[in-house]
Amino acid sequence: MDILSTKGEKLAERPETGDPTIADRVFTTLHSAILTLQMPPGSKFSEAEIAKQLGVSRQPVREAFIRLAQIEFVRIQPKRATEVCKISEAAVLNARFIREALEAAVVRDACENCSDELIDQLEDIVERQRKAVAVNERELFHDLDDAFHRSIAEGSGRGLVWTLINEQKAQMDRVRYLSLAFNEPVVIREHAAIIDALRDRATSRAETAMRHHLSRINSLIAVLRQQHPQYFAATQAVQGTDAGPLNLRVPALVKPAR
Ligand SMILES: [Zn+2]
């Protein structure tokens, strides 16, 4: 099966522009294929197989696998095929917690120091998201969602915070992408509410709108786990324990002596 067929040409056949490197392009191609579930969670691939499909040597594939392992998109196993990680609900919820805390603070800041140009820029992004929905360009919609959040951070002088958010959000990205199948109009409405609050410089309203927008992944994940159970890792009831179930007993209630 040609997993990466939608990319068409072989990467090595593209004209060299000097930048990005072949390893960067292999990373981008595989990242996109994993995000869009062309390479579904739990599937396995060898370096040689990917290198052949992309028409590159094994070295850039190895480098891309290492970068993908760092964001927990793949698990590299010595002498075995590399596996696309299943989606960990706990990791998604942790990433959401960090992201919500950071972006709530960022949007509060933005209310105090954002420019009218930033508001225009955000409106333009949401308009492009509407067009992406109209032509069913889900990956573009997802990229524009990132652009929306990155613009708020950078536009309020918090570009560095976006770097931190970016490191966390990979865990959420496949859930967000999957949810777009039924969630795009809601995302657009939520983005519009954030813009309205920013335009009014309404700090509390902006923070509430941002928290609502990001925390909704909690309910989306439950729906998606039902729709696509094969994409999700088994839930760990208690993280970090491997000593079997706890054997706690509730003491019998003793009626106080009269
Ligand atoms: Zn968003």
UniProtKB/TrEMBL annotation:
Domain HTH gntR-type: 20-87
Alphabetical list of SUPFAM superfamilies matching this protein: GntR ligand-binding domain-like, Winged helix' DNA-binding domain
GO molecular function, a single term: DNA binding
Keyword set includes DNA-binding: yes
Keywords, comma-separated and alphabetical: DNA-binding, Transcription, Transcription regulation
Pfam families linked to this entry: FCD, GntR
PROSITE patterns: HTH_GNTR
Keyword Transcription: yes
The protein, known as: GntR family transcriptional regulator
Organism of derivation: Phyllobacterium phragmitis
